[in-house]
Amino acid sequence: YRLLIVLGALLTLALGALLAWLFMRWWQKRDRPEPAPPPPPPPWETAFAELHELERGRASAIAEGRTEPWVDAVSDSIRAYLGRRYGFHGLESTTDEIASQLDLAKSLAVAPGEVVGFLGQCDLVKFAKASLADDGSRALIEDALALVDRTRPATVRHDGGAS
To answer: For the chain, what are the domain ranges?
Structure first.
């Protein structure tokens, strides 16, 4: 009987090892959930990047007569930023709708009228075909950057670090 007990124990051990090996193979090949995507960058970082890119292309856009598309891009960048920052569809909103949304916004560091004034300048160039000289375009992009800078949370510096 001793031989049967030893053979039974070895068979049980071999069967256990086989089951463990099969389990390990299944465990390694199973479908794993995709890792969560990284969170999107804060809206002010995106806006600063877009506006700095537009600032770099400002002179050539004005020189080549592409003022309207350039101003439209600046306006869209600010509208998208305000929408993401304050939780509304900025690109789908009119200037008046944006003003209404900003009236409801908490912790708005600028007067809604200031934003409306900026967007109104952009609208004049886009829709009324008003001209925009080199100095005017420089002032427009500086105003846009200042608007983003003043409306981001107070705990965030321009370089993205905490203050």
So the answer is: 43-151
Burial class for 152, CB neighbours closer than 10 Å (0-12, 13-18, 19+): buried
Q: What is the pTM of this model?
A: 0.73
Strands of the chain (E only): list them.
none
Distance between CA atoms of residues 26 and 98, nearest Å? 55
Residue 161 has pLDDT above 50, yes or no: no
**120 bridge partner residues:** none
Measured distance CA(85)–CA(66) in Å, rounded: 29
Tens of pLDDT, residue by residue over 98-135, are: 999 988 887 778 888 899 999 999 988 888 777 778 78
pLDDT band at 162 (very low <50, low <70, confident <90, very high): very low
What CATH number labels 43-151?
Answer: 1.20.120
Q: What is the largest CA-CA distance in the chain?
A: 105
Identify residue 8 by its one-letter amino acid code: G
Packed helices 134-151 and 112-127: angle between N→C axes, nearest 10 degrees: 150
